[in-house]
Amino acid sequence: MSELEVLDRVKELTPLLRERAADAEAARRLPDESIKELRETGLVRLLQPKRYGGYEADPRLFYESVMAIGAACGSTGWVSGVVGVHPWQIALFDDQVQAEVWGDDPDTWASSSYMPGGRMTAVSGGFQLNGRWSFSSGCDHCQWAILGVMLDRGEGTPPEMWNVLIPRSDYRIEDVWHVMGLCGTGSNDIIVEDLFVPEYRTINLVKMFTWESPGLVLNTSPLYLLSFGTMFANAITGAIIGMAEGVLAENVEYSKARVSKTWGKATDDPYTVAAMGRAASELDACRMQLLRNVGDMYEAAARGEAITIDMRSKARRDQVQSSHRAIAAMDEIFDRSGAGTISTSNPIQRLWRDAHAGRHHTVNSIDRSLHSYGMTAMGFNPTDVLI
Fold first, then answer.
1. Which tens digits make up the pLDDT trace of 217-242?
2. Which CATH architecture has domain 226-377?
3. Rounded to the nearest 5°, which phi and psi values hold at 262?
4. How many helices (H) and strands (E) does the chain have?
5. What is the mean pLDDT of residues 14-19?
6. Against a cut of 0.90, is the pTM above it?
7. 1.10.730.10, 1.10.540.10, 3.40.50.150, 1.25.40.10: which CATH number matches 3-105?
8. Which of 82, 222, 71 has the alpha carbon at shortest distance from 139?
């Protein structure tokens, strides 16, 4: 199967994912059959090195796939985006851990929690790790986890931010996911107690952000020269854009038959119909900006050109704005959709709740990112760590 076929397979799967959205919400995790079928599409291998059974694909294919899934089921789109971007980061780790993750099974998945939920101290040959990490989306379906940690450098020395990659046997999952949106993501807690982590399963975030990661020695595709801030944050926003597109599509069909006490046929309400057009334009702009920014970086890297601060800053600006603009467009449609949309049987309300839950992810902190863009536009250093 070629990388281009992945998107086709994803689109073929979306009607089934839409049908199972309520089941995912009720179970507070994705259905096992959906996980099996997502694996078969090859989606999570799009950003994976070819050396380990991946496609090393144009990242735009990945984000288009995430948006398509998000339009069908918000929780499935969210997990697809978050879990699907992890192979890109795993490719930056030492090759020894890449072989451990994918050597026997190229369809091995990893979840994450980047919040610095644990502390790590240096010991002979590696590190000692303890902590609790929240919001690890899709963790029940994954065999590894990427965790954010603070490395203790001793008294008088500030701790450093690192990531560790650990197998499922080294942590336990605590079921705490009782929420109002993205219910099906199963974003439970991960707990680690007195774990020895060998050094090759760790990565220094300063080195990762400055293209000094050990994995770049062997993974030389331009894909791996993109920035973490761009890749991960747009996985979140891609899912949210997809959810908003799903609300628009559902509302178009719903409005054809809806009867309003004020207007009679909903199609006779010019304001509601105009709102659909306005939302469609906004969502198209969000989609185009995401794909343009990622594509510009990928093509620059393929030409051997540096990915500049200005490019990364613009991508961050548009990413966070797109999350907020997509939800604003969704809100206008939802507010004009009548009382029927609050029924739990109506998919519009679920997508609406999912997107609003997703808005609370830290990558959608809008003022910080826009301030940083303004600083870089004036020639100063960025103030946002995701640049």
1. 999 999 999 999 999 999 999 999 99
2. Up-down Bundle (1.20)
3. -85, -45
4. 12, 9
5. 98
6. yes
7. 1.10.540.10
8. 82
